[in-house]
Specification:
By secondary structure, the chain is of the alpha+beta class. Helix content is 51%, strand content 19%. A hairpin with a 2-residue loop joins strand 1 (3-7) and strand 2.
């Protein structure tokens, strides 16, 4: 192996330098993602322990190295447990990257139009509604919390479900393609309770929460005002017109645009 230089008893090769730069780059990127959060402090502590462990191994302090290795193993497990939601969000974001997806274009134009028409009619009647549309990855665990329908999507079916006196109007409707998989589903609530100084109701928090954790888009109709909102990738867009909603769904399902890794990292930071 090509030797570059020596530091004491340590021989540094070209591959060692490349290895160090790769690890440093990964550590830097992880820190930029976690910066400004409690996770960043734990991450820094974990890196310090790794450095001490490496130094102890290099100078052959076996007892200290064993102790630090034990602490590191416990710390890594604790890190994964404590920040499991953040790790899940990152994996979901990576899965949304078009580089990862190898399937063809979405063909959901008809379904999008049906949902737009249904949401607009519910808005005019001021009937509250929450429609979750699955894009790539299913959310079976949430589907199973409701009433399984597996019915063909239609405007009349959606408006009937969210009629205030319907037994299915509470909770969310989950749609995949042109099929309504289930109604009255229970969704995870977002930790966000306010956006732009406006309090979020349970329906909006649920729509936002599922968009933070899964590859879906949520259409929310406010029972109080009749306004239409869309939650996508942990971001809530409110006050949409019929045309705006149609454009939003087409952009999300029919002609998705590629995202750079930088955009993905910024998106992850924005969801935290």
């Amino acid at each position: 192996m090509f030797e570059l230089f020596k530091i004491g008893f340590l021989t540094v090769t070209f591959l060692d330098v490349v290895d160090i730069f790769i690890v440093a780059f990964i550590v830097y990127k992880l820190y930029t993602i976690l910066r400004g959060t409690i996770a960043a402090q734990i991450f820094i502590g974990l890196i310090i322990i790794f450095i001490f462990s490496f130094a102890a191994q290099a100078i052959q302090l076996k007892a200290l190295n064993s102790l630090l290795k034990l602490i590191t193993d416990i710390w890594v497990i604790a890190f994964i447990i404590l920040f499991q939601p953040e790790i899940r969000r990152l994996l979901v974001i990576l899965a949304r990257n078009p580089v990862v997806k190898i399937f063809g274009k979405h063909e959901l134009h008809e379904s999008a139009e049906i949902i737009v028409d249904a949401a607009f009619e519910l808005s005019q009647r001021q009937y509250g509604a929450l429609i979750v549309i699955i894009r790539e990855t299913g959310i079976r665990s949430y589907v199973e919390t409701g009433e399984i329908l597996n019915a063909k999507l239609s405007k009349s079916l959606i408006t009937s479900i969210f009629f205030p006196k319907s037994s299915l109007h509470d909770g969310a409707v989950i749609v995949k393609g042109n099929i309504v998989e289930a109604a009255r589903c229970t969704l995870p609530l977002s930790a966000s309770t306010q956006i732009d100084s406006e309090n979020l109701g349970m329906r909006h928090r649920a729509g936002l929460g599922i968009s933070e954790q899964a590859d879906v888009i949520s259409v929310i109709v406010s029972e109080e005002t009749g306004s239409i909102s869309v939650a996508e990738n942990g971001i809530l867009t409110s006050g949409l017109s019929k045309d705006s909603l149609r454009k939003k769904l087409k952009e999300a399902f029919i002609t998705p645009t590629p995202k750079s890794w930088k955009t993905l990292f910024e998106q992850f930071k924005g969801e935290k």
